[in-house]
Design a protein that fits this description.
Layout (H helix, E strand, L loop, with lengths): L22 H13 L1 H7 L11 H17 L5 H14 L6 H15 L12 H26 L8 H18 L16
Amino acid sequence: RHWNNRCVCEVVMLSGQSQRLSTAHLQLFVAILLRNKKVFDQFKSRLTVTHFEDDHYRLLYRVLLDFNKANVRMPSRPELKAEIGALLELDDDLLSNQGRKELAGFISYAFNPETFSDCQPDSASLEKYARNAGRRLLLQTIQEQIQTQINDISIDELPVFLQQAKNTMEIIKRTTATNDKNETFELDWDR
């Protein structure tokens, strides 16, 4: 069930595939989000708990948001487990037994040295991957909202509704776009 990226993941997912993230892509995105503060900071203002369908990802992201707000950094594995454990002690019904197993499996995946053996979560290639995956997750949610709401829109309101949806999607694309340079040679290559 877990996916070992081996850096093959980079931008393959963007070449004409559907906007929906696969389970493996979502898992890798959340692992990078958990392990890379730069990526987390880029998405924390736009990405919400409701963007995740699975309860274990919702709980994990809620813990990440709260921990980062209190500590201005990402949690270590023991800190993450302690924060999740404390929440589950307060409300045992937050996660089902299956959700707990999925969360434990995900945490093992995210902190397993083998998961990021070829590319670290803070590498440029995985940051780019995360930006693209995060953009797709945000756009996927907007598309689902549009499909749900469009039935309740009158014909007169439809052009305004569609323009607002288009504007929102363009903002997401712009704010998650990369300004990376593709240089032929690394800086100071001739020294």
